[in-house]
Amino acid sequence: MGDRTIIPPYRVPNKRITVHDMAPMVRAAWMRGVSALPNTFAHESFIDEMAFEAGEDPVEFRLRHLDDPRQADLVRRTAAEAGWSARSGPRLRREGRMAYGQGFAFATYVHGTFPGVAAASAAWVVDVAVDTQTGEVTLTRIFIGQDQGLVINPDGVRQQIHGNAVQTASRVMLEEVTFDEISPTPQSWAAYPIQTFPAVPDISTMLIARPEDPPLGVGESAAVPSAAAIANAIFDATGVRMREVPFTPEKMRSALAAHGFDGALPAPAQGKKRHSLRRKLLGLGTVLGGALTFGAVALPLNRPIAPVTPSAPASFSAETLERGRQVFALGNCASCHTAEGGIANAGGRPVVTPFGTVYSTNLTPDPDTGLGRWSFEAFDRAMRHGISRDGHNLYPAFPYTSFAKMSGEDMLALYAFLQTLAPVSQMAPQAQMIAPANLRPALSVWNLLYHDAKPFMPEPAKGEVWNRGKYLVEAAGHCSACHAPRNAAGAEMPELSGAMIKGWYAPALAGAEATARGWDEDTLFAYLRTGHSEAATASGPMAEVTASLTALPDNDIRAMATYLASLGEGDPKAALAPVSRTPVAEASPAPGPGSRIYDSACAVCHEPAISGTVTAALSPLSRSAALRAPKPDALYSVLDEGVRAPDGLALRDMPSFHGELTASNREALATYLRHRFAPDLPPW
Question: At residue 209, does pLDDT exceed 80?
Answer without folding.
Answer: no
